[in-house]
């Protein structure tokens, strides 16, 4: 899955911080 898809799904993220917590939640929910 393209990384930009995860960014698009997390509008509360601040650009440059890479949204580690939100991305982690998506990866944990989708890949596990």
Report on this structure.
With 32 residues, the protein is mainly alpha-helical. It is 56% helix and 0% strand. The chain contains two helices and no strands. The chain has helices spanning 3-8, 20-31. The longest helix is centred in the C-terminal third of the chain and has 12 residues, at 20-31. The two termini are 14 Å apart.
How are the SSEs ordered, and which strands pair?
Blueprint (H helix, E strand, L loop, with lengths): L2 H6 L11 H12 L1
Spell out the key features of this protein.
32 residues; mainly alpha; 0% strand; elongated
Q: What Rg, in angstroms, do the CA atoms define?
A: 9 Å
Relative helix content = 55-70%
Terminal residue distance: 14 Å
Spans with pLDDT under 50 lasting ≥5 residues?
A: none
Number of helical segments with 4 or more residues: 2
Strand content: under 5%
Q: Could you give a quick summary of the protein structure above?
A:
This protein has helices at 3-8, 20-31. It is mainly alpha-helical and 32 residues long.
